[in-house]
Amino acid sequence: MKKKIIDQDYILSNGVAIPKIGFGTWRVKPGKEAYESVLMALRNGYRHIDTATVYKNEKSVGQAIKDSALKREDIFVTTKLPSHVKSFEGAKREFAKSLKRLGLSYVDLYLIHAPWPWIAIGTDHTQGNIEAWKAMIELYNEKKIRAIGVSNFAPSDIEPLIQATGFVPHVNQLPFYVGKPQLENRAYCQKNNILFEAYSPLMSGRVFKLRLVNQLAEKYGVTPAQIALRYTIQQNTLPLPKSTHEGRIINNAELDFVIAPEDMEKLEALHLHPKSRF
Ligand SMILES: NC(=O)c1ccc[n+]([C@@H]2O[C@H](COP(=O)([O-])OP(=O)(O)OC[C@H]3O[C@@H](n4cnc5c(N)ncnc54)[C@H](OP(=O)(O)O)[C@@H]3O)[C@@H](O)[C@H]2O)c1
């Protein structure tokens, strides 16, 4: 019998398996909320947790992982280097702090959170990104990280990393949802064997306003969230839905239905932000 989507993996270019649905934790408050949400996700079959230093909840995420009674090797944990840290030593230092807060001896995936500090979006930090990337390659070679990648990187941000080190990121994490087709970034990732992770796959909760998503939910007898998430899976990307409600956490993992090609075309044709960088 075919495995359910929540139990399936993608395989990264280095052979590491990564569960096809990740649990997002942005804006999940540190402490009780993050701890309980991650436990709920793990209890309901998720085996992939996406956090970041900037979310300030690594400690609660780590505690939930520890208390889940699951084996460490059965859970895939991602965290991210803060976007303002653009140096070799800084990256090493931040990684060590993340590891300590998580209470883990290794992480599965470490990402440069963005090519620029969030307070200076669009500014050029090519050299700093190369330095951070070199530190991450070293940590990867030391087996403290099983896969390394980037987030919010355009092809023009990734190319200098490859040119300087010869090391192609395993993952790029970008916003991807109905209305943001990401054709160029997806094509670049596919060409370079970089797994495309879809962040904000529910448009941070706004996807439910789209008439087409609601119409298709009715047609397929599923929820609008399931249409939005299944869309990202059928585009061979890895969605990272976030919720703090158990019913929704369960619902978001039930994606074992198929959206017909003609409906995928309609979803793909929606361009809500035709001029945005991503
Ligand atoms: N790398 C980056 O720069 C970056 C940026 C943004 C996000 N991310 C990652 O991607 C993850 C997801 O993105 P996101 O947090 O922007 O949001 P999202 O997953 O697109 O949407 C989450 C919102 O939808 C609601 N929701 C979830 N499931 C639902 C359902 N079944 N029915 C109705 N409402 C539902 C949630 O509310 P409740 O929680 O109240 O249920 C929340 O308001 C993040 O948590 C983070 O891990 C990464």
Give the CATH H-level superfamily: NADP-dependent oxidoreductase domain
Specify the biggest β-sheet.
8 strands, parallel
Q: State the total count of DSSP E strands.
A: 10
Which CATH first-tier class would you pick? Answer: Alpha Beta
Largest sheet, order of strands side by side?
3-4-5-6-7-8-9-10
Order of helices and strands: EEEHEHEHEHEHEHEHHEHH
Helical segment count? 10
**What structural category do the secondary elements indicate?**
alpha/beta
- Per CATH, what is the topology? TIM Barrel
**In whole angstroms, how far apart are the ends?**
38 Å
Number of domains: 1
Helical residue percent?
Answer: 25-40%
Could you say which overall geometry the principal axes of the C-alpha atoms support? globular
Bound molecules: NADP nicotinamide-adenine-dinucleotide phosphate
The proportion of strand residues reads: 15-25%
Tell me about this structure.
This protein has 278 residues and is an alpha/beta fold. The protein has a single domain (5-267), classed as Alpha-Beta Barrel (TIM Barrel). Helix content is 39%, strand content 15%. It has ten helices and ten strands. The chain has an eight-stranded parallel beta sheet. The protein has a two-stranded antiparallel sheet with strand order 1-2. α1 (32-43) packs across α2 (58-67), α2 crosses α3 (88-102) and α7 (211-220) packs across α8 (224-234). The longest helix has 16 residues, at 126-141. The chain is globular, with a radius of gyration of 18 Å. The mean pLDDT is 97. It binds NADP nicotinamide-adenine-dinucleotide phosphate.
